[in-house]
Amino acid sequence: MVQDGQIIAETAPIMSNSAEHVRMSHTLVFYVNGKEVVDDNVDPEWTLLWYLRNKLNLTGTKLGCAEGGCGACTVMTSKLDRSTGIITHLAVNACLTPVCAMHGLAVTTVEGIGNVKTKLHPVQERIAKAHGSQCGFCTPGIVMSMYALLRNTPKPNMKDLEIAFQGNLCRCTGYRPIIEAYKTFTEEWETMQMMSKSNERSPTNGGCPMGENCCKKIPITEPVEVFNSREFCPYDPSQEIIFPPKLHISKHLDEEYLIIKGKNVTWHRPKTLSELLRLKDQYPNAKIVVGNTEIGVEVKFKYLSYPVLIQPTSIKEMCTIEEYPKVLNVGASTTLVEMEKALQNQIAIKPEYQTRIFSEIVNMLHWFAGKQIRNVAAVGGNIMTGSPISDLNPIFMAAEVKLNVSSLKNGVRLIPMDHTFFKGYRQNVVSPEEILVSIQIPFCEKNQYFIAYKQARRRDDDIAIVNMALNVFFEPESNVVNKAYLAFGGMAPTTVLARKTCNIMIRRKWDTDLLENVYDSLLNELHLPDSVPGGMIKYRKSLTLSLFFKGFLHVAKKLQVCLPKEIESAAEGFHTKEPQSSQYYQMVPKDQEPNDLVGRPIVHASAFKQATGEAIYCDDMPKFSDELYLAVVLSTRAHAKILKIDATKALSLEGVVAFYSAKDLPEEQQFYGPIFHDDRVFFSDIVTSHGQIIGAIVAINQAIAQKAARMVEIEYEDLQPIIISIEDAIKHRSFFDQTPKHIKKGDIEKAFAESKHILEGEARMGGQEHFYLETNTTLVIPREEDELEVYSSTQHPSETQKLISEVLNIHANKIVVKVKRLGGGFGGKESRTAILALPVALAAYKLKKPVRCMFDRDEDIMTTGTRHPFLLKYKVGFDDNGAIKGIQVYIYNNAGYSRDLSSAVLERAMFHFENSYKIPVVDVYGFMCKTNIPSNTAFRGFGGPQGMFVAETMIRHIAEYLNKDPIEVQELNLYKEGDTTHYNQKLINCTLRHCWEECLLSSNYNERLAQIQKYNKENRYKKKGLAIVPTKFGISFTVLFLNQAGALIHVYTDGSVLISHGGVEMGQGLHTKMIQVASRSLKIKPDKIHIIETATDKVPNTSATAASAASDLNGMAVMNACNEIMKRLKPVIDKKPDGTWEEWIKMAYLERISLSATGFYKTPDIGYSFETNTGNPFNYFTYGVACSEVEIDCLTGDHQVLQTDIVMDLGESLNPAIDIGQIEGAFVQGYGLFTLEELVYLRNGALATRGPGAYKLPGFTDIPETFNVSLLKGASNPRAVYSSKAVGEPPLFLASSVFFAIREAIKSARQEYGLKTYFQLDSPATAARIRLACIDELTEKIAEPDIQRQWNIVA
């Protein structure tokens, strides 16, 4: 119908209940992996993920975040569109999807597409064979994202791949091998293969696409595929699982009015709009659920309860898209992907000018969340949720969209989505009983231009910091503004229209004279108080000006307004290009025995199981019939006295079994810690941080336990001071040791006196959340006589055993800790797993029943700590050439509330602060700051990257002071063979300069630097930067006694071998490497060797799997045990030299020769004294060099990594594929540390970044566009097993090459603005820091905010 020239969707007449004949059902029916599931006892509060894991025991689908941000829970849903006959397959987040929403649908999980015993699906096979699975926890979700893509698009292109993985995260691999695996399904790959075959048949003189980087011109190693794509099984779409015939034939499930009643929530799926309106009239506060992407998060993390949920996806008026003369009417329940497809169809068939708004919506949807969210989220939900940083609402407001709402009492009305629509934060003018039926998006006119921009912390799958939409109408055939609409998100509690600014534009020419008036108006109109939530005040204000300027340039270009050439590139943002990569490593000798796996790029031992979801992680273990669940009660104060702990209400809840707190443990058994016992199992008198455990509820299931934990009442009395930052700690002298650690070499005052130049400065690095995809998990099973069987996701089983023994006061020989595998660790599960394992062990011990707990993501982040933030203050003396004479450094780390491993982290920072440079005279002090934040802990690099950061900062400070290229100062001071470090360790087999030279050559550094300088002169607001960074990482635990390992080898009479060793498999390929070592030592086929788990009853008193030393230590132990077996077998082999392994083993058994042996290894010739500054703290060093090129957008602070070239000395690699995977994974994790990942602490000490929504890991599209990794050829290492080198931690710091390349780009921008002095750039180099460092005429308009009033504080 038409009303006042506008189209309103006509509402069906409201009929009485008696007049309708509705088929009603209370039974949920859907299909999982082809099998029908019929359940009449469903709770609407259950998610699909919960149902799959707990009701159907399909544990291949993982829980990573519970907010749809990591993709570990991805499954595929399939639905038949009966009007077209098309079956649509969607990748969805099972963690958010309500199981009730599956009625009448088919669900496919990773288990349903292939398995190890029968047949792998090509999607599973390729990711495994291409080394795209390390810890494997994210792998099933990535597999299912790819599978869903193939079901819809059997021959995708690279752009399809990019979009498919926007909602998936991986913390281990660095993404490159996953992309390499799955690009083999694409059109581009097929074309490339055809061209390759054609070139093989017809050789030409064509040049290599790598140009000067062609492998034939680089004397490093031969480029070799780490996998053979020719071995992949072909993909045949016709062999896929069919859609359930029963669903195909019958439509009765689609036509049912579904009502599912639970204890607290009732689920309605009405069939008609009239039914829906009656429901909303009856239950005005009922929530409308389509994708559950907002409500699911509110229920899980904000603990909101919605008794009535209504799913409108069967209501035609809300799900259809119709074209009218002036508008496109889009049903409010239309999903974002459905709307995107409809808009793309319009763009394809309509004149360009008519669909300018549609084009900007489609462009924005690319950056809107991940594909899994867009597949299910409704456009109406985005509007009604009313987030002030919604990606679409600014577009809708600027586009003059109108909303069609309806209610039983008031009928239909059309609401303009203008400045009157939002009444306040997440509040609008739609009445509670009204339903948003559809939205009307207008077509554009010829004289109308539309553009939208968004700036976030990360481009893909992130919420906006600020976004803008600009809609401008011009007088015919002119550049005079007729009217304008300018909307912003992120600048107020609601999306806002800058109406005053719009009025200023009217009747003005669209030229540069307009800009200054608009800037001034925007700053006046969009006021942000200094204390506004979200912080970043100056940055957000600057974005309003920058984004408008970009919009101005876009429109000016369309109007053909003449503008300076150097600013033309400013209008465009960055777009992902198809990633390119190469890997170089040394092949094994041709005469190496086939059974000898050392040096071969074999696949991770668990890769195929991980790709099929069959790999078992701690929480995947089957539940016991009498098993209980534990939930923790956490502190909500940073520093307070506990006045009362009252669990009465919690204990009265049905299903609650017990509550434990400090009163349940004797005082002497309450303390624990890895070095000092200064942490508590339960805090009782005073809390000194948010997230400390005060008590634990044990109940019959997770839901009850967590609900009861929230019911425990804690009364506090706040205490002062609250110390959050390092500066706070320095001010209050809050250190764990008032006497700092100290390393001194030479006379620093004399060195300064003899130095021609002296500079002083600071370097600051923020912390980093580990974000292993598998959160901390513990299952404890009591056995007889105080025996406990503990399954824990720990990197340190022996420490977990020891601490449980001490807390429960039982002998360690009665406690067995077992670890099958971890879903990532990175140091975060070395010491902090005890925070969960101890309460769970206590509960199991007291109750004599199995007890389990898996931390939710927010709990894990709140309790377990992060990488240490560091502040480093330096004073450096040097000569005219830049040769460093002496350095004095004061190093401060933010330890948090307890010591944990902070002293060892600080020591490594002190050992590594010089990075790769020879410093003749050194005076370095180290302080551990005691603060009121969660206790910080080990993280890949263990203080090394923070220490090295100050060296690279100083080098650049010196270079800029002397007006030299940093590379000159670097090369002048670089270590060489035979040099001695500041802790007096001589460098032997130092390949640092070799790596440096190879990296300069392979990266084509000098030529690219000249090209960058030319580019920067031609572009004002886009700048490129290039930086090269070396690393020298010491390998060993710096605590001497930890450098030991054991192994146990059993050989059975069939010739099979079982290995047990002290290391934990957490994705780094440790078990795989141990099998390789054993295959060489025993000279047998690898399929005869197996490793079941790591367990304290097999190998006792083990060190943590940490410090990059696990392969070295355990490899030598395994080799020694194997050598002992071979020594015993020698007489047997001598008797029958032509016999087989199996024959020798049977002979040995019959001759009563022991076929079980232990191996032990301790690292020789190490040990260091701080008192005398003598000894060798490290066994050897791993060296590497990286060169990175970036481009930054000076207006927004966004950046893109264009190329990274890495050269690493890994000796003679045990497994090049695994080692290259570790290099890439460490680099991308380091890239996150130095750019994207920012911890946000509120002024009350609470951590605001508690999940992937607020804390941004690098995603698939964040890796370098060109990513080349080379293993140095001809390197050896006599100090480790089979001449290999450790790899886990050393590459991480190489990612600082991106940081320093960003700094070079910023420097170029500043110099163009006339700023030529040195500037400090703190890490991480976030978009906000980059933008505000690029000082220009826009940022100078904005006053500095009052830091003391700011919402957050830098720790």
UniProtKB/TrEMBL annotation:
Class of this enzyme: oxidoreductase
Cellular location(s): Peroxisome
Binding residues for [2Fe-2S] cluster 2: 135, 138, 170, 172
Binding site for substrate: 830, 908, 942, 1038
Entries under SUPFAM superfamilies matching the protein: 2Fe-2S ferredoxin-like, CO dehydrogenase flavoprotein C-terminal domain-like, CO dehydrogenase ISP C-domain like, CO dehydrogenase molybdoprotein N-domain-like, FAD-binding/transporter-associated domain-like, Molybdenum cofactor-binding domain
Subunit structure: Homodimer.
Family: Belongs to the xanthine dehydrogenase family.
Protein name: xanthine dehydrogenase
